[in-house]
Known about the structure:
The protein has helices spanning 6-17, 24-49, 54-65, 74-81, 85-98, 119-139, 145-159, and strands at residues 71-72, 101-106, 109-117. It is mainly alpha-helical. α3 (54-65) crosses α6 (119-139) and α4 packs across α5 (85-98). The two termini are 35 Å apart.
Amino acid sequence: MPENDEVDRIVAAWQQAHPELDFSPLQVLSRVGRLAKHLDRARRDAFNSSGLEPWEFDVLAALRREGAPFQSSPKALLQQTLVSSGTMTNRIDRLVERGFVERRTDPHDGRGVLVEMTDAGRTAVDGAMTDLVKRERELLGALSPADQERLAGLLRKLILDFD
């Protein structure tokens, strides 16, 4: 394995251009950014293999995590997926058209609606998740389980200030 990666080359060039600046944040965050691009590609490929768009996966995954009967209110779904109510309504409409979800009357509130995942939706999201986990495992292949655990802890520590 080469000792230097593209980030090392970029940082070295910047150090030549601006020797008075401390480029140590780039050593970490540029690598995180580059990994994010690889992860985005792996996710896109995993979702495509199951015929899903990323936003479809997000909504279906939120329903899948609810457990049987795989249903939730639109409000809870938009909170989990961080989109507006108008966007969520549009997404639910499109998922209904694809046969991945159905709208149900909330038995506890006759005016309320629940979104329930269909068998087709569950098959699609389960296939995408299986493929995604496989692809993500491959991305982490250079790290031992202990290294992965250590990295997860460090990233958790870093992201807690943002969540």
